[in-house]
Amino acid sequence: MMRIRRYLRGSGRVLAFVFIASVIWLLLDMAALRMSMDDVNSQLLKERVIRDREISKQQRGTQLVKQGFKNPVQRVDFAVTRAGKGPLSSSIKLAHVYRHGGQKAGHQGGHLPKADEPKHVASEHKEGHYNVALKQDGPAKKKAVDLDLNGMKSETSRGMDVIIKRTLPVVVSNTTQVPPVVHKNKHGKKGPIHSEPKVETVTEVSVLKPVEAHPVKTTTKLIQKDGKGKVVDDTASVHKVISLDLTNVPRDANAMGQFGQAALVASNEDAEVKKRWNEGHFNVFLSDKIPVDRAVPDTRPEMCAQHLVHDNLPSTSVIFCFVDEVWSTLLRSVHSVLNRSPPHLLTEIILVDDFSTKDYLKEQLDTYMSQFPKVRIIRLKERQGLIRARLTGAAVAKGEVLTFLDSHIECNVGWLEPLLERVYLDRKKVPCPVIEVISDKDMSYLLVDNFQRGVFKWPLVFGWSALPEEYIRKNNMTVSDPIRCPVMAGGLFSIDKKYFFELGTYDPGLDVWGGENMEISFKIWMCGGEIEIIPCSRVGHIFRGQNPYKFPKDRQKTVERNLARVAEVWLDEYKDLFYGHGYHHLRDRKAINIGNLTDQIELRKKLKCKSFQWYLDNVYPDMKPPLVQAEGLVFNRGLRKCLTLQKGSLSFDTCDLSSQSQHFNYTWMRHVRQQDLCIAPHGNGSGFALQLCDNAVPEHRWLHKSSNSALADHLIAEYASKRMCLEAGPKGDTLHLNSCESRNAFQKWEFTKYHTQ
Ligand code: UD2
Ligand code: MN
Questions:
Q1: What is the pLDDT of residue 111?
Q2: Ligand 1 atom 34: the closest Cα is on which residue?
Q3: Of 712, 737, 743, 757, which one's alpha carbon is 20 to 30 angstroms from that of 514?
Q4: Section 618-622 average pLDDT
Q5: What per-residue confidence (pLDDT) applies to 663?
C-alpha cells in the first residue's frame, strides 16, 4: 500500500511536472503564435499598402490621361512666378489624386482639411481587410516578402557588420511612440545608451576645408553606361543591393501612419491640427502621433532589389541642417537613415542646428541623440541659413562622401547604396534620390512618377519635367536607369567630399535659402561633373506650402539676390533672360547690393568651366531659349513702312527683308537695338537718339507686347512718368514721343518674328 502510495506520490510529482511543463509550453506557444500573428499582420498590412498603391497608381494614371495632364506628377507648377520654388502645395493634389483615383480635388490649394472632407478612418486597418488583401493579391505578397528576406539574407551571408539588435525601450520624449533602435558599432559593441551628448559649437563658418584626408579615388574606375544598369567590372566584387530595413516588422502594425499609410484625425481634433499647423506648415499634430521609425512602402522599381553594387563603396557623412524643425519629423528623418542604411557605409550623421529658437531642439535633442554614437550635433552661434549651415557640416564631415538631406524626410529601403555606387563609379557624378512626397496633410508616403528630372524655367524657377518619350525610346531606358538631371531640386544629394571642395562648394555669398540648387547644378555640369536622379534610391520629403521659419531679411529679396548672383556668375549672355522675366529691377545695383562676385568669377575661370551655351546645348537641349524677344523688320502700321538705320540716323523706308539696315532686335532688356546701338527718346521727347546700349539707362528701355493689351503693339517709354509712346510722323519724316493712344496706328509697331507670346 505504502509502495503504491509512494508510487502514486512519485508519479504525482511526474504528473505535476508534466502539467506544469505543458502549461509553460502552452504559454510559450501562445506567445510565439502571438508574435507570428503580429508578423503576419505586419506583413499583410504592408502587402495591402503596396497593392493599394499599385491600384491607385494605375487608376491615377488613366484618370490623369483622361484629364489631359502631360505629367502626372505635377509637383511644381511653372505658372508660378514668385521667387524661389514653385507651389509646393501640389503634394496635396497628388495625395488627393492617389486616394480618389484622379477625380478632381475639392480642396486644391488649401492646406488644412475641411470639416466635410472624407477622413481616413482607422477601421481601414482592421484585420478583415488584410485577409482579403492576402487572398486577392498573391504577387504583391511575394514581392514584399522577397525583398525583405533578400535584404537580410544578403547581409548575413556576407558577414557584414549590420544592425541586429533592438534594445528595450529608451524613454525619449512624449512625442514618440516607438522605442528607438541601437546599432552595433564597427567593433560589434553596442553604443552607450546615455553617453555624453556630442555637441559641437561653431561660431564662424570660415573654415571650409575638408577635415579629413580620406583616400579619394582619383581615377574613374568604371563607367557605368546610363540606361544599362549593369556593372561591367570583372575584378571588383559586387553584391546585391542591401535592402536593409529595420522597420520591416514594426512593433505596432496598427500604429498611425504605419507603412506610410494616410493617418487620420478625428473631427474633434481639427482645431488642434489647425493650431499646430504653423509650427511646421504641415500636419504637425498628426506627425507627432506617428511612430518616429514607421515603415514606408518599398516604392523602388522591382528590378532595383536585384541590382549589383560594389563591395567597397565609399562611406558617407549624412548632413541634416535644420532650423526650428518639428521634433517628430527631425527624429523620423534621423531614424530613417539609421534604420535603412548599411552601417558600414554610414560614417556619421551630422545635425547642424542653424541657431534654432525652440527649446526642445537643445538639451532634449542632445539627450535623445546621445543614444546613437554616429550622430553628431553642431550648433551654429548665429543664423547662417541653409547654405552656410551645409558648408559647416561639410567642413567637419569625416566621410568620403557627403550626403545632404532636408530635416523632414524619410529614406526608403535601399536608398543609400545606389547613390554611393554612382560616386564610386565616377567621383564627378552627383547622384540624387527620387524625391517622393510625404503628404503635408495626412503624412502618407506617396510615390511619384517615373522618368522625372529637375529642370528650370525663366527666371530660374525650379520644376520637374518628364523625359521626352523619344529620348527614353532612343536610349532604351528602363525605369531603374539613372536619369541625367539638368538641375537638382537642392535638398537631397550625395557628392564626393573632395570633389565638392574642388568645385569650391556653394557660393558662400548666397544667403539663407534659395537659388543654391541652381548654382551648384550649373557649376557641376559646366565644370565637368554630372547630376543624376537614381530611381533605385528613393526618399520621401514633406513639401510645405511655406517656409515655417523666419527669414532674417525679406524672403523675396533674399531669393532674388541669390538668383542674381547665380545669373551674373553662370549665365553669360543668357543672364538677360533672367532679368527679362520680371527681374528688371535687380539690374539697378543702387537699389540692390548683390555682393562681391570676384571670387566666384575667378573660380569659374580656374576650373575652366564651359559656357552656359554649352550647358544648354548638351545638358538641357530641349530648352532652346531665345536670346531676344523679337527680331526682324520693325513695321509701322500707320505708315506701312519699316524703320531703317542709315548712316547713324533713323528714318522709314519700304520694307525689305534683305536689307540689314532694317533689322532690329527687341531684347530681354527691352532694348530696340541694331548691334550695340539703342533707340532712345531725346530731350523732352520731341526727337530721338541712337545711343550705345546700356542696361542701366532707363531711357533705353521700351515696353512692347506687355500685359497691357490695349497698348500691346506700342513701344512705351519706360523712363517716362506719364505713358509716352514712340510715334511715327504721318509723313514718315519724324519719330517722336507722344501720349499713348490705343487706337493710333502710327504708334503701332510690329517685328517680323516674335519668340515669346
Ligand atoms: C528646396 C530644397 C532645399 C533647398 C531649398 C532652397 C528639396 C527637397 N528641398 O526647398 O533643400 O535646396 O529648396 O533652394 O529639394 N534650413 C536651415 N536654415 C535656414 C533655412 C532652412 O538650416 O535658414 C534647413 C531647413 O530646416 C531644411 C533645409 O534647410 O531642413 C531645407 O529647407 P526647406 O525644407 O525649407 O527647403 P524646401 O524643401 O522648401
Ligand atoms: Mn524641405
A1: 32
A2: 406
A3: 757
A4: 96
A5: 97
Q: What is the pTM of this model?
A: 0.75
Mean pLDDT of the chain: 77
Atom of ligand 1 nearest to the CA of 549: 20
Q: Is the CB of 407 under 6 A from ligand 1?
A: yes
Across 355-361, average pLDDT: 98
With a 6 A CB cut-off, is 516 part of the ligand 1 pocket? yes
Q: Are 130 and 54 in a shared domain?
A: no
Q: What is the pLDDT of residue 3?
A: 58
User: Same domain for 204 and 125?
Assistant: yes
Identify whether the C-beta of residue 640 lies closer than 8 Å to the C-beta of residue 657.
Answer: no
Query: How many structural domains compose the chain?
Result: 3
Distance from first CA to last CA of the chain, Å, rounded?
115
Q: Look at residues 744, 753, 259, 280 and name the one whose alpha carbon lies nearest to residue 540.
A: 259
Tens of pLDDT along 484-521? 999 999 999 999 999 999 999 999 999 999 999 999 99
Which one of 648-652, 710-714, 733-737 scores highest in mean pLDDT? Answer: 710-714
Residue 134 CB neighbour total at 10 angstroms: 17
Cα gap 243→303, rounded to integer Å:
12
Residue 285: other Cβ atoms inside 10 A: 21
Last residue of one domain, picked from the residues 542, 572, 598: 542
Atom nearest to 515 CA in ligand 1 = 14
Rounded Cα distance between 464 and 477, Å, is 18
Tell me: pLDDT of 277 over 90: yes
491 Cβ closer than 6 Å to some ligand 1 atom: yes
- Residue 431 is classified by DSSP as E
Q: At residue 2, does pLDDT exceed 80?
A: no
Q: Which of 530, 493, 498 is nearest to 610 (CA)?
A: 530
Residue 459 near residue 578, CB atoms below 8 Å:
yes
Over residues 239-274, the pLDDT tens digits come to: 999 999 998 777 799 999 999 999 888 889 999 999
CATH number for 99? 3.90.550.10
Taking only the tens place, the pLDDT of each residue in 155-193 is 222 222 222 222 222 222 222 333 333 333 333 333 333
Nearest CA to ligand 1 atom 6: 514
Residue 439, domain member (yes or no): yes
* Ligand 1 atom having least distance to the Cα of 543: 38
Kindly list the strands in the beta sheet with 702-703, ordered across the sheet, starting from the edge strand earlier in the chain: 702-703, 716-717, 724-728, 735-739
User: What angle (nearest 5°) sits at the alpha carbon of residue 308, between those of residues 307 and 312?
Assistant: 145
Residue nearest to atom 3 of ligand 1 (CA): 491
Count of other CB atoms within 10 angstroms of residue 18: 11
Give the H or E element holding residue 151.
Answer: helix 138-157
With a cut of 60, say whether residue 281 has pLDDT above it: yes
Spacing, Cα 406 to ligand 1 middle (Å): 6
Phi and psi angles of residue 322, each rounded to the nearest 5 degrees, phi first: -150, 150
Q: Assess contact for 674 and 693: CB atoms under 8 A.
A: no
> Which mutation among 406, 430, 531, 546 tests ligand 1's pocket best, with the greatest number of atoms within 8 A of CB?
406
For ligand 1, say whether the CB of 91 is within 6 Å of any of its atoms.
no
Q: pLDDT tens digits for 102-111?
A: 232 233 222 3
Which of 59, 78, 101 is the C-terminal boundary of a domain?
A: 59
The three cell numbers locating residue 473: 525610346
Q: Which ligand is nearest to the CA of 405?
A: 1
Tell me if 219 is assigned to some domain.
yes
299 and 420 part of one domain: yes
CA distance 405 to 390: 10
Q: What totals of helices (H) and strands (E) does the chain contain, helices first? A: 17, 27
Residue 708: pLDDT above 90?
A: no
Distance CA(104)–CA(87), nearest Å, equals 18
- Which residues constitute the domain of residue 673? 628-754
Question: What is the 604 CA–ligand 2 centroid distance (Å)?
Answer: 29
Strand, helix or coil for residue 536: strand
User: Is 602 within the bounds of a domain?
Assistant: no
